[in-house]
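Backbone shape codes
____________________
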Amino acid sequence: MKSVGKQTILKTLALLFTFSLGLLLFFSQPAEAKPRIAPEKVNVIMIGDRLVDVAFNLGVLPEAMSVRCSMWPMCKQLLNTSQILGCPKCIVDKNPSIVPNTAKKRGIKRIIIEKHPNFCIYKPKVKPANVVPLLEGKGLTIEYVDFSNGLESAIRQTAKLLGCPSKADALIDRYNKAMAKAKKGLPKAKPGKKVVIINGTYQGSTGKSFLRIEAAGGYSDQYLLEPLGCVNVGDVLKSENKKVNKGHFSIRKLDALVRAKPDIIVMTGNPFAVQKALAAAVEKNPALANVPAIKDLAIYSLPFYGDSSVIEYPGILKTWANALGN
């Protein structure tokens, strides 16, 4: 066996070890905060994932809801608990009758809507309140929770509308304590580490991996990388004709990692899809083994944050800090 071949194998083994570390971190992440008792169902429709996240952490769930399931991880856990009507864009553009029809069918008279100055940075024109004209004249009471004055105010508004104002202080206290702990873990000096964030999807029927790179300027930059003093260099992997969709762009090859030279690679979505693609890429292009993130075993599976899991944000920030802050 030639020495070059041995070196390639050793690098591949090192990469596989890196994958093990990332997978271990993935499974050791703390679960989302959950109420201590089963949530109470209330006969309302809620529109907006931040609103439902707050309600859930107050111990309440709506009969039906319109949320961004791709942004709010809790959504998948609640599919059999509350009816998912689609995202706030879908209930206006694709299925404008679903909210009034659901209200009529289920005997619901109240609609609670999230108001937020930047509801979705991926789709700036989408607002939960866009559904209001479709509800007029239907005998429905429309109420709002305004997040523009901060999370504490939104928690108090939500608790009052749901008839549990006494629970607001406890949730606010829990959030503030978690945030204080997260901030203590932030690096005092800004390390300036270069990061590439790869979202993976694995298709079990074909064994294929599909990869998307998170473009610079998105949610991870604002809520995670900037507080940690890190820089998103994912755009180096973007070809000129590739379009950014919902803050990400798809790629087929990882060779451009050689040019990006990330200090850290973060895997979101399905980590195995990314692991599988990276292993195959290194085998085809041994130069990838010299990318700092790969050479230094700095590949981590971390939760994506899209400013939906607002109550869980401190825990997510702390997890990212544990991985990227050292």
About this structure: The mean pLDDT is 89. The chain has two domains: 3-30+185-324, 40-182. Residues 40-182 form a domain with the Rossmann fold fold (CATH 3.40.50.1980).
